[in-house]
Amino acid sequence: MVLHESKYAKIELDEDLSMITHSWTYRTSEMVEREFKEEMSRLAEFFKKYRPKRVLVDQRNFFFTILPALQQWIDINVNKILYDNNCQKVAFVVSPDVLAKLTTDQTFESGYSSQLNVRFFDNIVEANEWIKQD
Fold first, then answer.
1. What is the pTM (predicted TM-score) of this model?
2. Rounded to whole angstroms, how far apart are CA atoms 5 and 98?
3. Superfamily designation of domain 2-132
4. Is the Cβ–Cβ distance between 111 and 75 less than 8 Å?
């Protein structure tokens, strides 16, 4: 079920798997920090409401650089919710954009983010296989 769709992202829920899929669009190259925070805040609200056990983030079209202050904001305002709700797995299908990938990796190096079961994948098939395993 589609929960949200904008020019930057799509958020879907699979209730049977207790999984939220968050897919970024190529238009993230046009995004500014305020818009990124709005998208992430919306995602955080869905995390609170649905308490997913699995999260799949498709960043193949993600072209936004997450600066260190924003990485900390994500940890406190988004990833803490997953941690508090005992999210079991988070899978990222990484962006081919080297800087976007690096800043995503850095986001999960400390704080609540580092305590989540996160894996990074080069393709969506492997990510789906891993995240659906019990």
1. 0.91
2. 26
3. STAS domain (3.30.750.24)
4. yes
Q: What is the pLDDT along the chain (134 residues), one digit of tens a residue?
A: 999 999 999 999 999 999 999 999 999 999 999 999 999 999 999 999 999 999 999 999 998 988 889 999 999 999 999 999 999 999 999 867 666 677 777 777 778 888 999 999 989 999 999 999 98
Token pair 């992430």 in the structure block, residue: 40
Is the separation of the CB atoms in 25 and 60 below 8 Å? no
Positive or negative, the CA dihedral 122, 61, 89, 65 is positive
Q: Residue 134 burial by CB count (10 A; 0-12/13-18/19+): exposed, middle or buried?
A: exposed
Amino acid at 19: M
* Domain definitions of the chain by residue range: 2-132
The CA distance from 103 to 57, in Å, is: 14
Number of alpha carbons in the 13 Å side-chain half-sphere of residue 25: 12
Whether 26 contacts 64, CB under 8 Å: no
